[in-house]
Amino acid sequence: MAWMAETAARRADPRALWPDVRSIVMLGTNYGPAANPLKAPARPGTGNISVYARHRDYHDVIKGKLKQLASWLAAAAPRGTDVKVFVDTAPVMEKPLAAAAGLGWQGKHTNLVSRDFGSWLFLGSVFTTLDLDAEPAMADHCGSCRACLDACPTNAFPAPYRLDARRCISYLTIEHAGHIDRAFRGAIGNRVYGCDDCLAVCPWNKFAAASREAKLTARADLDEPALAMLAGLDEPSFRALFSGSPVKRVGHARFLRNVLIAIGNSGDPTLATAALDRLTHPSPLVRAMAVWALHRLLGPAQATHLGGSARARETDSDVAAEWEAA
User: Which strand (E) or helix (H) includes residue 106?
Assistant: First the structure.
């Protein structure tokens, strides 16, 4: 479906990215899970990885398909037609462009919603110098529904169609490079990478089907992996486990930060050993959350008794503050 460059002034102008662009072909690929991720009861002591990251990195899958389409388009078009493909790799406003191209509409959770695939869509684009007819934009069909707004564990939506990324669990566990504010740690629960709540509760998902793309089928070992196993990963084993997965992009230390928050939220004192083992990790991000997890699982007195030597040697102010915060 094509979106004409003439409408670009309403959003960030794609011509700033490529001045010669005349049309943009927007495409969506369904990555719908086989079952509602919110209805599957979590096994105690396991981590929750966002649906989109339980399989091969979508960047690789979608880019390959876009290149096939772009090659066909260039071959079928008049000589001299040029094409470029993008999938979350450049400052392309994919969601508003996809809405303008008729793929769906931006729901109150700010993500694209499709009448056929609900909220489970990966987006990609083909920029071209070819003039194409525009498809009609899709009307908003959210109505009075606010299921996505009410489902957010951290109240990240100050109003419909507005997202405060600083409160979003997906942002905090994936993009945020520093310490996660104490106010949000409890709400993160066992989410070690991303969050699907606002997507999963969308009523339009009742029309969605599981993805038929084999490369987007969830890996069994990334479906509720054990927190103790995840906490024990060293750098090489982390990279090996998440080879070909977008999870690898967050890096080992940031991932352990997330896992230790999940351990602190688990209510399982037997996982305290995993937190104790990380009190001497090189990264302050990891050590700080190991302290927090210990305090949550054992209480301040027992945590200090078991981790006293690490506390005495601590030189990082943020980690020391976690010891004192209890």
Answer: strand 105-106
What pLDDT is recorded for position 61? 87
The single-letter DSSP state of residue 16 is: G
Residues of the domain holding 79: 2-35+53-128
What is the model's pLDDT at position 311? 96
Q: What is the DSSP track for 210-235?
A: ----GGGSPPGGGSS-BHHHHHT--H
Q: Which is nearest to 38 in space by CA: 171, 216, 195, 145?
A: 195
- 75 located within any domain: yes
- Does residue 215 fall inside a structural domain? no
Catalytic sites, residue numbers: 88
CA 257 – CA 225 distance, rounded (Å):
16
Number of domains in the chain: 2
Q: What is this structure's pTM?
A: 0.91
Phi, psi angle pair for 135, to nearest 5°: -85, 155
